[in-house]
Amino acid sequence: MRELPLRLAGFGRALRAAGAGTTLRDELDAAEAFALLDATDHDEVHRALRIALKVPRRDFETYDRLFEDFWSDAPEPAPRAPRREAPLLPRGGALHWDPDQRRMGADSRTPPHGDAPGYSPEALLRHKPFDGDWSARDLARMERLLARLARRLATRRSRRLVPARGRGRADVRASYRRALRTSGELVHLARRARAIDRPRVVLLLDTSGSMDGHSRFLLSFALALRGALPQAEVFVFNTELVAVTRALSPGKLRLSLERLAACVPDWSGGTRLGACLAAFAERHLGAGPAGCRVVVVLSDGLDRGDPGLLAAAARRIQARARRLIWLNPLRGDPRYEPTASGMRAALPFVDHFGSAHDFASLERLLPRIAG
Hints:
The protein is an alpha/beta fold. It contains 14 helices and 11 strands. The strands form 3 sheets. A 6-stranded mixed β-sheet has the order 8-7-6-9-10-11, with helices on both faces. Strands 3-5-4 form a 3-stranded antiparallel β-sheet.
């Protein structure tokens, strides 16, 4: 991808201009490190580039500021192409940093050959609101992105170390215990590696009329999550709570939507949010050990019922669950305030209150579920 080397070159140049002392050798190290990163993980890229570029502690504040300028809107890299690569620098032109455009480009006196670096279609879709206008092609692309996001959650490694074969850090104690079987000879080293964390996730999806613009994408995410994490559970609610885990067919969105429309009463109707969450807490949350499941509520919080009933249900869920997360699509609007009585009643018992209005907001959910 052309934009990556340009961003790295501009980033290194800006750091040198700010006195951070980054060298060209450091930029090459950063380029090699970037190939091993999850480019969609903002924190991972931030830490890795800071190490590869050898930024001293005194310049951390400068690094953080410039990193946001260069990488806050960085697109997801495309798969590697064959060895024939275009020149990294435009012929006959010098690179310059344009602070208004926040990207590297060719000097205006010598225009570059070919197209200028730009965003990929997937990068644009990451911030496109779910309730916007979608073409059939973009819908298919978004479904693929959601499936990829679910797989990332299912393969995310925890901090816990477990015995492993082959690669991993050496386990000295276990190695010495193993050596007792061979008269003290260290024939093979015992190793430990970070375990894959497969959290038990419960999704509660609001399918009332006010959520129509978001339901398709959130159901796509539920389908993908169900395919990647077989132990995940999915419920939908409006005036009644319905367990739909068995009705979902991963990879078959249309079929699943037809099944849900047939088995869920009052689809796209009103909302009895408090009563539905109370039913979940009473009938389903009691099964299994306490604190083992992450409960994610996807709802705009609009409820005409008794706020006290909703508050009691949220309190009970938080007490029994590992974590209660509430994602509200309305929170994607910077002007939004949780003034609705139902949302105000539930918030004191919510561990994390976030948005669910686009793909990027769902992406930020991953560390909250796995953490």
